[in-house]
Structure formats: C-alpha cells, structure tokens
Amino acid sequence: MSEPTSAAAGAVAVAPPQDRPVLLRVRDLAVDFKVPVKGSLRAARLRAVAGVDLDVHRGEILGVVGESGCGKSTTGRAILQLLKPSEGTVAFDGVELTTLARGRMRAMRRRMQMIFQDPYASLNPRMTIGELIEEPLLVHSDATARERRAKALETMRLVGVSPHWHERYPHELSGGQRQRVGIARALVSNPEFIVADEPVSALDVSIQAQIVNLLESLQEELGLTMMFIGHDLAVVRHLCDRIAVMYLGTVVEIGDCESLYTRPRHPYTQALLSAVPIPDPLVEAERRRRILKGDVPSPLNPPTGCRFRTRCWKAQEICGTQVPALTAESTGHQVACHFPEEPGPESPAGT
Ligand SMILES: Nc1ncnc2c1ncn2[C@@H]1O[C@H](COP(=O)(O)OP(=O)(O)OP(=O)(O)O)[C@@H](O)[C@H]1O
Ligand code: SF4
Ligand SMILES: [Mg+2]
Known about the structure:
This protein is α/β, with parallel strands linked by helices.
C-alpha cells in the first residue's frame, strides 16, 4: 500500500505480542439467543457465550479454537457488535463499544472488520468485484468515486487479485480468488482489527495454504491485530501467537501458541490436542491419548459449576458447585480449572 495505514504504525514494535498494549479487552461477555421450545409458545434462553474474558494485544494474532457450536463465531460477532451482547463489556482502544451511540459505533466499524468463512455466500452475486471492494468505503468514508476506485485497485493488488477483475462478477472467480476479494473488502478501509472466522475452511486444501500465507504476510505488512477462528489446529499453530480454547460458551485456557501445544493445562485442551497426530512416529506411538467420552451438553441446559465436568476424568465435587475462574498460572497460561493438569512427558501434545 502506498499510503501508510494507522495500523502500519503498530508494526514497528519489537516486543512479543503479549507484552504490547491491549487493543481489545473483553470482560464477562455473554450472548443469549431466544430459541423456540417444541410444543410451547414460550421461547427458551440459549446462552451461547457465557462469561468470556479475552485480551487481544496490538499486532498479535489470537487463535480461537474449540468444537463446533462452542461459541467461537458468536464471540467474534459480539465483539464487533454485529450481535448485541447480553452482558459484559468490549473495550476497543479504550472505547467501550457496548454502550456506544449508533453514530460513533459506525465510525468505529471502519477500524474493525470481519472476514467470513464462506466466500460464496458473503459476496453479493449482483455486484462487480470493484463494487464489492469499494462498498465499505461508501459506508465508512467520504472518499470520492475516483478515490474509491483507486483504493479498491490498490487493495486488489495487495491481496493478489488482478485489477482486470474489477468489472467482473463473483461467479467468474475461483473459491480462493473470491476469498481474496473477501479479504480485500475487509482491508480496504484500513482497519486495525480483523476477526477472521474460519476463513479457509470452505476452500480446497490446495488453496488453504495460499490464503493462510496471504493473511500471515498481510498481518506482518500492515501490523494488523487479528482474531483467527479456526478448527484446523495445525493451521492455528502455524499462524497464531496465542490461542484461546473454548468449550460450551466459555474460555477454558489461553496461552502462547508453543507452550499451549506442548504443555496444555486444561483437561479439555489436552483432549483436543490429543486428537492431533504428531509427525514423529516414535513420539506418536509413545504418547497417551485422551479420548473425550460423551457428547457436548446442550447450551440450553449446561452443567452447573465447570461446564466440562460431565466429560472430565478429573472432576470432583467442587467442580459441580463452583465455576472455575480463568486465572493466570506461573506457566503464563490462563486456565479455568480447579485441578489443572501437570505438564509432563505424557502430555498429549508434548514432545
Ligand atoms: N442465531 C442463532 N439463534 C439461535 N442459536 C444460535 C444462533 N447462532 C448460534 N446459535 C447457537 O449458539 C451456539 C454457538 O454457536 P456458534 O455458531 O457461535 O458456534 P461455533 O463455535 O462458531 O461453531 P462452528 O465451529 O460450527 O462454526 C450453538 O449452540 C448454536 O447453535
Ligand atoms: S474444573 Fe474440574 S471438571 Fe472442570 S476441567 Fe477442571 S478438573 Fe475437570
Ligand atoms: Mg462458527
């Protein structure tokens, strides 16, 4: 990009991401949905996100992982105020978003954007690629038509979409190219913070690496701060600085990528990572697997105390009566468990 972005200013910092200032502070975030009850006119309350605390530091990529339905997308959307949180606070660069007047929130939106999972569904098929990429500028800036076009072309080059595609339509592009257009739409207004919600899951395996590499280079080049929601633990490990593990609407563990993978402390994290094969056959043969038993309970009727207790091999009485707080450990992790696992040689993801 020829003009420096406000985000680019953050790129010069050399401190590890977790030592940099906090850009996004989420506290006690809860999101409820009303869902119909069979045979009743009453609606039930489904708490999809329950008491989430997260800090995202300037210039870092925070990965968010967990089984399907654990609340990753809902958390990302509630942070961007695309869904209204039921409880809790979301402070972005010191500005509380949950109580912000609509006009001021619109101005903040330019600084926070989302990349969606499905590049097919997220692009209006009746708009040209140029119109799609210029649209956020129409909403978030006073740029003239000429300026919008110049900025769209510049952003297309940045994400590897040929300027020749400016007048074409989404159906003429491959899946990977469409996701690049989705990324261009997110970047064109020079945001500082991006929520990327499973941005490669809908793509062919051969294309996934290209898009992950693109996100990695853009993050470095623009100094972006990112929340990367993913289910491929190898991709998340490759891309992210820190990882938050979610279970049934709550964050159970946060740690820097390397130590979380090699020394997970929460029993659920151990089980989740235990499913990931280790390339070394000797280590793979030696390690102990934790196979999760039973299904994830319904968020309509979650277990009391620790939400993981119905599947946890370490559960004791206190786990049913007291919600474990997310507390900082000497390892640098934050863990929500009354009896965190000791990191040891048999640690599921340990080498
Ligand atoms: N609009 C909605 N109305 C009712 N329930 C919803 C709605 N959106 C999500 N949910 C429920 O909230 C919970 C969390 O859903 P969410 O989509 O955030 O999970 P996720 O971790 O992103 O899952 P996935 O990995 O499948 O994308 C699930 O139980 C889901 O069924
Ligand atoms: S708090 Fe108890 S039930 Fe929950 S993960 Fe820890 S040991 Fe298991
Ligand atoms: Mg999701």
